[in-house]
Amino acid sequence: MLIPAEQVGAFVVALPKGSRSQHTRLLPCAVEDRIGQPIETMIVAPAPLAGAGPGQILACVVSFGALATAIEASRTGAAPAGALPEFLLIRRPVAPAQGMAWAVWRDGLRAIVRVSDGTGFGAGIDMLPLLWRRAGCPVLTSLGAALPSGLPATDLSMAPPDPDPADLAFRFVQARTAAQTAGLQRPLLAAAMMVVFGLAAHLALAAVDAMALGRIVATAQDNAQAALDRVMPGVQLTPDIAPILARLAPVPTQPRQGTFLPLIAEVSDTLAAQGPDVTLQRLGWRAEHGALRLVVVAAGLADLQALEQVLQSRGFLVQSGAATAGDGGATVDLTITRATR
Questions:
Q1: Looking at domain 90-170, does it have CATH number 3.30.365.10?
Q2: Which CA distances in Å does 141 have to 112, 221, 247?
Q3: What is the residue-wise DSSP string for 91-110?
Q4: Domain map of the chain by residue range?
Q5: Which of 149, 142, 53 is nearest to 90 (CA)?
Q6: β-pair type (139-142, 101-107)
């Protein structure tokens, strides 16, 4: 079953080094700012991309509503094995040494385009000349009906290339569960961050309580001295009678805390006071190592280097993974621990 190319978005994105499952979870974040719909309503799935560079992934996006409509409109009336974007039926054209290439299949008033970078789209045939010029006049190959006059295309309509078997194996339905899971992880991550900041606020309140308890102790000592003056005038309270004072005055208790909350509080304070403008994409904690793991996004690699230098200058041990840069900014995986004193 085919989904019209006009209802599918395709983007080549760069992600940090990781497993396929990790890339599937990161894809919605990588394309969220390129689509005009809430990411929770969309399916984002990795599609085949032969010859892709390190971290490069072809992300295909379709709304749940469009997929459901296509399934309901299927002639068999039964749920199909999967849904394939139309442009994946066209073999990816080979780009020249400089520039890009388009393979265009004209079907009546529609044009289905496969781009040499692996992406594709659908448009009205009357819009094709304008889109072609805006794209920098890529090399054209015509696979179907004749293209509008003025478009210099090589005609392969008599023997169009066969589709790539790897492209034909892609299905949106197969990726739907992973996409939904990735979409659910976003509110879960937000909830986790709310819990963390809530606990940090609780610790701040506990510190204020400790100061208040100190004032209470001082007042209690004065009261004890006043009571002792009534019974034993002229006798001053000394450390020798500390057990008596312990019975008369409340003892402040220090809140017990692990290493996670102090570490994230110090890192947050450091970034807020001196750090560059970065966005937290993922938060992790390795209890056995006492290490905080952050995936952050900044405008460029220079900001990521500045972030690392700020953290190191405040006494943190910082280990950084491979940084990647794309249209959406630069991304790096940081492992932060407290320096041994």
A1: no
A2: 12, 92, 92
A3: PPPPP-SSS-EEEEEEETTE
A4: 90-170, 258-341
A5: 142
A6: parallel
